[in-house]
């Protein structure tokens, strides 16, 4: 996939010239507290992820969410996936972040749905799964609006923001999107 387009929103595979945007977004004070503590943070590590996304497009992806404004496409966020189980065709989703300037438009919902369809129908995954910190109620509402089913909770599983927090598990299978 080089491009997946929706209504005024599109996903494209991240490129090396996106590193500064990704670093700025994922370290933004209104974004960073909600992202996985284990994610890549520095430019070199993010560049390696982008290069891996280019080398292994069916197993790993880092994407930029763009929106159309005044006839041009503007970077508004990021999201990604990684192969979790080849035999069972499972992908872990994560690293979703929308710049605060673009919030309130449900861009994350549209972007998630574009990625779901791409992974399930173009790359032939069967199951998509993700995990959200228990304190991140906004992300949980997003997951449910995007069609994910809440499957369970890992109680007090992660040390984040100086305390133990839950991880809420969501899943979506191909049959959820088929007519």
Describe this structure in words.
The structure is a single chain. Strands 1-2-3-4-5-6-8-7 form an eight-stranded mixed sheet, sandwiched between helices. A hairpin with a 2-residue loop joins strand 7 and strand 8. The chain is globular, with a radius of gyration of 15 Å. It is an alpha+beta fold. It has one domain: 3-Layer(aba) Sandwich (Aminopeptidase), CATH 3.40.630. It has five helices and eight strands, in the order ββααβββαβαββα.
Per the CATH scheme, the topology name is Aminopeptidase
Question: Main sheet?
Answer: 8 strands, mixed
* H-E order: EEHHEEEHEHEEH
> Domains counted in the coordinates: how many?
1
What class, by secondary structure content? alpha+beta
Q: Give the strand content.
A: 35-45%
Residue-averaged pLDDT? 93
Low-confidence segments: none
Strand order of the largest sheet: 1-2-3-4-5-6-8-7
The end-to-end distance, rounded to whole angstroms, is 24 Å
What's the helical proportion of residues?
25-40%
User: CATH class, please?
Assistant: Alpha Beta
Give the overall shape: globular
Going by CATH, what is the homologous superfamily?
Gcn5-related N-acetyltransferase (GNAT)
CATH architecture: 3-Layer(aba) Sandwich
Strand count? 8
Number of helices, counting only DSSP H or I runs of 4 residues or more: 5
- Rg over alpha carbons: 15 Å
């Amino acid at each position: 996939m080089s491009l997946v387009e929706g209504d005024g929103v599109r996903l494209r595979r991240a490129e090396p010239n996106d590193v500064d945007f990704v670093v700025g977004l994922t370290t933004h004070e209104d974004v960073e507290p909600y992202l996985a503590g284990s994610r890549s943070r520095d430019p070199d590590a993010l560049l390696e992820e982008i290069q891996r996304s280019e080398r292994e497009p069916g197993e790993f992806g880092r994407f930029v969410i763009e929106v159309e404004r005044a006839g041009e496409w503007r970077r508004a966020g990021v999201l990604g996936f990684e192969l979790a189980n080849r035999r069972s065709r499972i992908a872990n989703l994560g690293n979703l972040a929308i710049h605060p300037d673009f919030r309130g438009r449900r861009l994350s919902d549209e972007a998630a749905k574009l990625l779901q369809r791409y992974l399930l129908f173009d790359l032939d995954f069967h199951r998509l799964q993700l995990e959200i910190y228990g304190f991140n109620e906004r992300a949980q509402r997003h997951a449910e609006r995007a069609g994910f089913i809440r499957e369970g909770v890992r109680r007090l599983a992660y040390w984040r923001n100086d305390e133990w927090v839950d991880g809420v598990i969501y899943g979506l299978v191909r049959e959820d999107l088929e007519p």
